[in-house]
Amino acid sequence: MKKAFTTTLLALVLYGISCTSWAQTYPNRSIKMIVPFPPAGAADLTARIVMKALSEDLGQPVIIDNRGGADGAIAGMATINSIADGYTLLFATTTGMNAAPTMRKIPPYDPLTAFTPISLVGKFGFFLFIHSDLPAKNMAEFLAYVRANPGKVNYGSGNGTSILTTAQFAQKAKLDMVHVPYKGDAPATTDLIAGRIQVLLGTPGSALQQVEEGRLRVLMTSLPKRSPLTPSTPTAEEVGIQGMTIVPWAGLVGPQGLPKEVVDRVEKAMRNVANRKDVREQLEKIAFEMQSSTPAAMAKFNQDQLETWKITADSVNLERN
Questions:
Q1: pTM of the model
Q2: Which end of the chain has the least Cβ crowding within 10 Å, N or C?
Q3: pLDDT at 79 over 60
């Protein structure tokens, strides 16, 4: 009995020392941050700004590893299959956490159980861009033109979030447009500028520069309030489009079973980063609203959005692949 008690006590002491040691030493080398999109897009640009600040707080390099494709599922699976030691994390976005599980007949994973939530990072601003050749200078004129020309206007999408957000917008505005999918906002924007498509609801990227030069027009933002990036652009509600419920978001997660000490350290670093004025100002320039959260709050937000996605996908009769 005494021997068993001694053994148990020793195990608890060693466990406590191990946890304390882990918390004190993590991270002691570089961290790989998987980003589920190719370079130069909104997610990549956002991740690079945030990870630079995060690496400064953690005292170790945070290296971006771009793993685009399959609506974020490639990046998600790479994270799931990594060692749960805190040295491989995922810059999770709506596309991989909500789109991939919702838009497929056989989901690649359960986003609520396959990952360890750490913190929200913030929300992407989506804007409705149109090519300047369209005879519309505001939302009312755009809606009237598309309704008068059913099936003749092409719209692009760069990811699953853009697909469902645009489908929801078209349903609520009673529009009949032709969908042209792309592998990212960057190539979709390139074709929009060239006039091969006429409409894009997505992140601003390089599109705002083209607005200034007169090649494109921006008619609406899906953000709940006007963006300081383009304060003259009205919100969806201001132009009469009610109930845009899809929120393009980003957060940090790790593989299932990530040690609490790692979660706590990274979450604390994210709080510090979110409080930095210089970081927030950089992100505002690409229409990203920075925030942080507890792991529990992030898990709840993801769960709520996943349910919203399922309801919206059914309401717009989304064809699952």
A1: 0.84
A2: N
A3: yes
